[in-house]
């Protein structure tokens, strides 16, 4: 009596193959980045492979040797499909990870002097000094959090601007201050508080989250030019943390001509803040551009839209960890510094040449500004050189050897309000059309000086914008938008 096919080992091996094949097809369709022609060819090829292996595994007309060969081939194809499904799953997850969750993380600390006998918030005998830059509702929520977690009733007292609040701690007028951690580095940059880290300690931490809206001017990113604000915050770790925007770059993309215009903007640009007042910022106040990041990327975007007189369609946030992780995941990048300057920093020496950099080297190269006569302006050029190196490596065949680690790094290193469907459409377009991109880079300039900075509540170094260079940058952006070539300079 003949055995039924579902009672043969080959039938179950084929079922595994079929399940893995269906999973791969579904994931590719959901991914939505493979061009239709390639997708159809791939599905047909996979179907033919399944039919061939089905015949070799279960047909009664196949001899023992071919059946064994079919089993070996099926195991090989199944292994390839398992790896492929893993790649597809991680790629699909990536698009969800880099689209922001709608929340931004904030951290408040109760800070006392390092030599104080106060070790916990329950040891306080007086009110906690607060800054006028901290929202009253947030302070109320902090008080409620202490009551709920520590069963301690605390009192707060407004001490005015940030540095006035800090000074009350140094003058022993306050036992403790309530510090928004995104302002910590601003304090340490002031000469009189340069040892703030060592001279203070944290006795209580309160973390809260605020909602951020996708305030985009969406376009068809495969057919229309668009501009992205790339803003880099001065922190390591979670990309959701609020902090200053130390890197600010406009990236204008024309998907039809495959031209990209980069515009670097100094962190100390003295600008008029524009934003949604609900974000806690002060509309119309003058401050450094970097301080706008304390109220989120939307504030930085609105401020730059006002300065440049243009629409910025999307934002992309990165931090220090982003650069390190991505460059290392790419296996290092090539940076062309032949038009730049040689300098040494952090134990590394950077030459006026084409260099191979790892993640830590790329970060140090992109962050340094004190080694240059032009300071932040040359740093902006170096940042554009690093971005160019990352784009070149990520779009080269070399990406295939580090694809999985690249996905792991990218997933936790970017946060954007561009929709995942738009990102998929861009990838689909590049895979369909191929071809390289032409990138140009310019920097806006200014004159250094000292002026009052609203968020700091004090005077500090600023750069007054040279509006001629701003207008030239706008012309370069509009030229790319209108189909022209990108500008370098």
Automatic annotation (TrEMBL):
InterPro entries: DNA_pol_proc_fac (IPR004190), LytR/CpsA/Psr_CW_biosynth (IPR050922), LytR_CpsA_psr (IPR004474). Residues 106-179 form the DNA polymerase processivity factor domain. Keywords: Membrane, Transmembrane, Transmembrane helix. Residues 244-395 form the Cell envelope-related transcriptional attenuator domain. Pfam families: DNA_PPF, LytR_cpsA_psr. The chain crosses the membrane at residues 12-31, 37-56, 68-89. Belongs to the LytR/CpsA/Psr (LCP) family. PANTHER family: POLYISOPRENYL-TEICHOIC ACID--PEPTIDOGLYCAN TEICHOIC ACID TRANSFERASE TAGU. This is LCP family protein.
């Amino acid at each position: 009596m003949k055995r039924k096919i579902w009672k043969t080992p080959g039938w179950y091996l084929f079922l595994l193959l079929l399940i893995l094949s269906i999973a791969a097809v579904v994931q590719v369709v959901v991914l939505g980045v493979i061009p239709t022609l390639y997708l159809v060819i791939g599905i047909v090829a996979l179907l033919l492979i399944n039919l061939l292996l089905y015949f070799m595994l279960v047909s009664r007309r196949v001899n023992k040797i071919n059946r064994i060969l079919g089993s070996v081939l099926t195991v090989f194809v199944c292994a390839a499909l398992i790896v492929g499904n893993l790649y597809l799953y991680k790629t699909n997850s990536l698009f969800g990870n880099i689209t922001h969750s709608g929340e931004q993380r904030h951290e408040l600390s109760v800070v006392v002097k390092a030599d104080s006998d106060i070790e916990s918030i329950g040891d306080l005998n007086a009110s906690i000094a607060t800054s006028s830059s901290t929202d009253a509702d947030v302070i109320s929520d902090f008080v409620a959090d202490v009551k709920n977690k520590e069963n301690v009733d605390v009192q707060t007292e407004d001490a005015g601007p940030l540095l006035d609040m800090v000074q009350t701690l140094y003058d022993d007028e306050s036992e403790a201050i309530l510090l928004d951690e995104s302002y910590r580095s601003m304090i340490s940059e002031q000469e009189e508080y340069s040892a703030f880290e060592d001279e203070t300690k944290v006795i209580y931490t309160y973390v809260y989250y605020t909602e951020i809206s996708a305030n985009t001017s969406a376009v068809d990113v495969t057919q229309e030019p668009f501009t992205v604000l790339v803003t880099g915050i001065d922190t390591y770790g979670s990309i959701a943390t609020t902090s200053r925007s130390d890197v600010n770059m406009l990236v204008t993309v024309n998907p039809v001509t495959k031209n990209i215009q980069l515009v670097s903007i100094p962190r100390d640009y003295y600008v008029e803040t524009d934003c949604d007042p609900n974000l806690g910022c002060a509309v119309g106040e003058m401050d450094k551009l970097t301080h706008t990041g304390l109220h989120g990327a939307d504030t930085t975007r609105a401020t730059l839209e006002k300065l440049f007189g243009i629409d910025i369609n999307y934002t992309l946030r990165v931090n220090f960890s982003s650069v390190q992780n991505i460059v290392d995941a790419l296996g290092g990048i090539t940076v062309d510094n032949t038009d730049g300057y040689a300098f040494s920093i952090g134990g590394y020496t950077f030459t006026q040449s084409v260099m191979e950099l790892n993640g830590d080297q790329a970060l140090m190269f992109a962050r340094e500004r004190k080694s240059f006569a032009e300071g932040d302006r040359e740093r902006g050029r170096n940042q554009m050189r690093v971005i160019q190196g990352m784009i070149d490596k990520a779009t080269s065949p070399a990406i295939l050897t580090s694809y999985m680690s690249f996905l792991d790094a990218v997933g936790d290193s970017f946060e954007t309000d561009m929709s995942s469907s738009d990102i998929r459409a861009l990838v689909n377009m590049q895979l369909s059309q191929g071809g390289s991109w032409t990138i140009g880079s310019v920097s806006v300039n200014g004159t250094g000086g000292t002026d009052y900075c609203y968020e700091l509540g004090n005077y500090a170094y600023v750069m007054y914008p040279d509006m001629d260079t701003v207008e030239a940058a706008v012309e370069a952006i509009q030229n790319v938008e209108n189909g022209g070539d990108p500008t370098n300079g």
